[in-house]
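Mods, move this if it's the wrong board.
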Amino acid sequence: MKTPNKITLGELLEIRPGDKENPSWVNDEFEAVISNISPAQGKGPTKFLLSDPEDPTIRIMACSFGGMVITRYNEKLCLFGGQGMTRTEFNGVQQLTIGAKVTINVIGGIAQASPAPRAANTSIPSPVTRPTASPTTGPINGQTVGMAVKEAVGIVTEGGHDWTAPSTWKFLHEVASDIIRVSRLLEMGKLAPPIRERAEGVLDDRYQHALEAQVEHDARVKQEDEAASDSFAKAHAKAEVMREAQAQDKEAEREANLTDKNGARYDNDEVPF
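Not the wrong board. Structure tokens:
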């Protein structure tokens, strides 16, 4: 029988969550401290928190549907193995779903999780440190890389970039890296603010700059419209003055044609036109 591999809780978090149609099975063993147990309500699962024994900041919520009495493992360091563990996600929270065939063996309490005292004059090896899972550090599994590269290629292709140019491949690397960073943030349960908060003014600098630019543009358009309206009003008034002057000139010319050189008015049948 094949001996299962042993992974850390941080590596378990790197496994991409699945769903009912495409479950993401966890076939490796791992160690974790159980705490914050919430007993099952009705037909619901028992929920509890799993923490890495070396770094308690690395944690994941677990749900047990197998009817196991999880409370007996509270505050204990346990070894998880067997069949029936899947990586899941519910409402943006990363989870581990545990079935009835999963084995949980106590290997120590929290106090016993630390190395036992050694005899005098015995050399103690330096502790091995490992990277903590974060959006920018830690190993990246092949499935995540494949997803990121596929999405990045689509973005670069749609942008019409020249694939023979070195700058295009640099851009592809940057886009894929950003996608992985966002994916890791979501897997760690770090969601963006809800749309209601964003609509109420929780805007980042880019949105704020865009908003300020739009306000500035609207003010400039309004100012130009007012200037154009004022210019039109002045032109209209000037045209009215010119029309009135022309009318007065025509009236004066008509009066001049109705009188002789001595200023006497012609009779109607004597008007020379």
